[in-house]
Amino acid sequence: MTKVSSIVKPGGAGVITAIGQTTVKEAVLLMTRSHVGSILVRDGENFGIFTERDLLTRVIARDRDPRTTVLAEAMTTPVKTCSPNDDVAAVVDMMIREHIRHAVVADGNRIVGIISLRDVIVQSITDVRDLILRHSGRADQSDSSEGLSAASLQLDPAIEMMLEASGTDQTTGLANEKHFAEALERFHQQTRRYGRELSVLIVKLGSMGQIMRELDARAADKLLKNLASTVKSLCRRADMPARLGEDIFGFILPETVASGAVRLAKRMKQALAKVSQQSPFDLSARISIGIADISSGDMSCGAYLKKMAADAMTRAAKHSPDGIIVASAHIPLEPPDESAV
Questions:
Q1: Neighbours of 289 (CB within 10 A)
Q2: How far apart, in Å, are the Cα atoms of 96 and each of 88, 103, 128, 159?
Q3: Is 339 inside any structural domain?
Q4: Whole-angstrom Cα distance, residue 251 to residue 176?
Q5: 72 and which of 43, 51, 190, 336 could share a cystine (Cβ 3.0–4.6 Å)?
Q6: CATH code at 186?
Q7: Which string of DSSP letters, residue by residue, matches 88-157?
C-alpha cells in the first residue's frame, strides 16, 4: 500500500500559510507566486484552509470583494487531516466521504504538508507507469500479466476518486450540473428504448442568492447542507438530486409521470418551509418548481426535458399561485442552451 509520506513533500515544502485577516486578494497573489492551489490559514487558535474552490464558491459566486474579504470569512474549517503513515487508499475514502480535494498532513502537532486530489492521481499514474516498465521487458508473460493487474488495482482508487469528485457538488454532496446532465441523457435513452416513464423536476429558491450573500461562509454552507439533506431525504433510491446553481436544484425521477412529480414537489415545499422556520430567513414564499415528463413534448434528448422543466419553473415564479407548473407540449420550446439550467 502506498503511504501518504511517499506523496507529501518533505519538510513541509509547498505549504503556504497566512493569518485569518489576510485579504483574499493577497492570498491569491501569494498562491499564484508560489504555484499552489491552497493556503493554510491560522485564525487565532483555529486553523482553516483556503483553496481555489473557496475563491470561486465563497467569494466570486457571492459577489464579495476579494480586496476586503479576509480569509477567516472564506476559508474551509475545520481542516481535515491525515497522517504520513496513513494508506493513500484511506485518504481517498476520506476525501470522497467529506467531499474535499485537499487534506492537511500532520505528524502529531506538527504540520508536514498538504495532499491534494491531483497529488494522489499523479502518484497513482506514476506507480502504474513504473510497474508497466518493470514488467514489460519480462519474458514470462504470466509475471507481466500479474504486474499489470497490480498496476490496475493501484490505479482504481484514484480513478474512482477523480470520477466521484468531478460529479459531486462540494458543499452539498449532491450531484453537480455536469453529472446531472450526463445521467439525464442516459436515463432518457433508456426511457425511450424501453418505453418507460421519466420526469425532471427543477426547483428555484428565489431568495437564496441574496441570503447567501448576507450570511458568512460557514453559515451559508450549513444552510445549504440542511436544504440538500432535506430534499435528498424525500427522494427514492433511484432518483438523482443535484445542485445545478447557487439557488437551483434538479431532480431526475425515473419511472415517474408528471402527477407523481407534482406530489413530490408539494412535499418538498412543505419540507423546505419547515427548514425555513428554523432559520431567520423565509425560503418557502419564493420556491418555484417546474416539472416535465417524457410526454411533455418532442423530447429528442435529455437536455430538452431539462429545458422544458426549467421554462416551467420560470413561469411558476410569475404565474402560479402555488409555485408549481407542469410543462405542456403546446408551449413552443427553443432548443436547449447547454450552458443554462
A1: 28
A2: 12, 12, 22, 12
A3: no
A4: 11
A5: 43
A6: 3.30.70.270
A7: HHHHHHHHHHHT-SEEEEEETTEEEEEEEHHHHHHHHHHHHHHHHHHHHT-S-HHHHHHHHHHHHHHHHH
Question: How far apart are alpha carbons 102 and 79 in whole angstroms?
Answer: 9
Spatial separation of the C-alpha atoms in residues 288 and 227, rounded to whole Å? 15
How far is residue 233's CA from residue 198's CA, in Å, rounded to a whole number?
20
User: Residue 210's domain spans which residues?
Assistant: 177-326
Tell me, yes or no, whether 282 lies in a domain: yes
Q: Of 117, 139, 166, which residue sits at a domain end?
A: 166
For 260-275, give one letter per residue: b (16+ CB within 10 A) or e. Answer: ebbebbeebbebbeeb
Residue 287 CA to residue 262 CA, distance in Å, equals 14
Cell of 333: 420550446
pTM of this structure: 0.55
- DSSP assignment letter at 301: S
Look at residues 166, 189, 219 and tell me which one is the last residue of a structural domain: 166
Task: Give yes or no: residues 188 and 249 share one domain.
Answer: yes
Q: Each residue of 174-183: pLDDT tens digit?
A: 888 888 988 8
Given this model, what pLDDT does residue 166 score?
57
